[in-house]
């Protein structure tokens, strides 16, 4: 790979040449200081690629996007909070057309797309959303406002930006905002993510690299095992920098999306711990993924993490129930470097149990399970499940 340097930047999307963003509150969110309608706009138009939810009941904004031809360009993404515009049928799609028709009277737009997050089953408040068009500054670079506007149960905004200088001295910038804290499951994890870059990435590379990075990042995390109707990751490039190196861009995109995924996991509703579930020694990579994902989704495992209980029985039971080929005489389980279970050590002695308690009190640690069946390996990431998660979701609509 070519040598390159990467520098973290403050200001999120504002760092990317030719991109503009802003957000305003139109009354869908009670806090007037936090926006509920946001946009991302580019001069000139962008190539765009997207990955969407695997949920069969895809929301209206996704269906609206999918009506465009495969290699379309756009210059405008409109985003709203508090209403998912999901399970709203054809009327939900028609409502987007109405909103975009009004937008086109305010500013020149090319194939505008929309993304929504919030409560399922209600049509968009069209008049409120349209009222935003007289308040938004379409030439602003307010990434902070946009990042905060797309939050739902998030406790903090999520944005990143990098400057990447290539070996030949050319450079490109890449930045993203995203949201996510609940309904997070490794199946195009429940979230919205918007990535903007001025890199001269060919359209033919965009879809492949975005899917690859999604699998490396968002598809490996789980808060609660639920997959929403609105999951979206968009990659937009206006190519204004003229700089590009495929291998470098792929590595940087992986880094950007993985760090955002870890932010989402850290912000899991009521979560206190982030845990890596490394499964190795499986019959195949697919079997390792199956077992690892089962661990990151398991409610019993998550509650044990919250209680800081080194109960390896929940780990072993989940692997055995996952459907992968395994053998209790070959299995080993480690918490970080500490051996918790093997055929020789089936019961925790006092010394190892005390060491395990210390590990489980950490904010982050790794559970490693070696199945001893082959060379397959996979790591997914999960968090604990607390009382606060129940409270947040019991009161979601209120």
From TrEMBL:
It is found in: Cytoplasm. GO terms for biological process: L-arginine biosynthetic process; ornithine biosynthetic process. It catalyses: L-glutamate + acetyl-CoA = N-acetyl-L-glutamate + CoA + H(+); N(2)-acetyl-L-ornithine + L-glutamate = N-acetyl-L-glutamate + L-ornithine. Substrate binds at residues 152, 179, 190, 269, 393, 398. The keyword Acyltransferase applies. Heterotetramer of two alpha and two beta chains. Catalyzes two activities which are involved in the cyclic version of arginine biosynthesis: the synthesis of N-acetylglutamate from glutamate and acetyl-CoA as the acetyl donor, and of ornithine by transacetylation between N(2)-acetylornithine and glutamate. This is Arginine biosynthesis bifunctional protein ArgJ.
């Amino acid at each position: 790979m070519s040598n390159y340097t990467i520098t973290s930047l403050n200001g999120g999307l504002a760092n990317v040449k030719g991109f503009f963003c802003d957000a305003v509150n139109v009354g869908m969110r009670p806090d007037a200081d936090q926006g509920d309608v946001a946009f991302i706009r580019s001069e000139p138009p962008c190539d765009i690629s997207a990955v969407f939810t695997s949920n069969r009941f895809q929301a209206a904004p996704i269906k609206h996007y999918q009506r465009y031809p495969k290699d379309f360009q756009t210059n405008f993404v409109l985003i709203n909070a508090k209403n998912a515009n999901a399970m709203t049928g054809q009327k939900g799609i028609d409502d987007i057309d109405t909103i975009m028709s009004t937008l086109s009277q305010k500013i020149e737009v090319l194939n505008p797309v929309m993304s929504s997050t919030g409560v399922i089953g209600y049509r968009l408040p069209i008049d409120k959303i349209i009222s935003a068009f007289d308040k938004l500054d379409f030439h602003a670079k307010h990434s902070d406002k946009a990042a905060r506007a797309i939050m739902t149960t998030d406790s903090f905004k999520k944005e990143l930006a990098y400057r990447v200088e290539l070996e030949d001295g050319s450079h490109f910038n890449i930045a993203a905002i995203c949201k996510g804290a609940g309904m997070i499951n490794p199946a195009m994890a429940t979230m919205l993510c918007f990535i903007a870059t001025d890199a001269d990435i060919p359209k033919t590379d965009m879809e492949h690299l975005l899917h690859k990075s999604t699998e490396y990042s968002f598809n490996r995390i789980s808060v609660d095992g639920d997959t929403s109707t609105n999951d979206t990751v968009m990659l937009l490039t206006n190519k204004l920098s003229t700089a590009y190196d495929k291998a470098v861009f792929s590595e940087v995109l992986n880094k950007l999306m993985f760090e955002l995924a870890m932010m989402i996991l850290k912000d899991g509703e009521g979560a206190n711990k982030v845990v890596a579930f490394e499964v190795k020694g499986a019959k195949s990579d697919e079997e390792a993924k199956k077992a690892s994902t089962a661990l990151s989704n398991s409610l019993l495992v998550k509650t044990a993490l919250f209680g800081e209980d080194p109960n390896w029985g929940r780990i072993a039971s989940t692997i055995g129930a996952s459907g992968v080929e395994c053998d209790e005489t070959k299995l080993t389980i480690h918490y970080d470097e500490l051996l918790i279970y093997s055929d020789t050590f089936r019961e925790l002695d006092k010394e190892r149990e005390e060491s395990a308690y210390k590990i489980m009190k950490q904010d982050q640690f790794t559970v490693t399970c070696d199945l001893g069946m082959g060379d397959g390996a996979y790591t997914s990431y999960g968090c604990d499940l607390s009382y606060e998660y129940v409270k947040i979701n019991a009161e979601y609509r209120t």
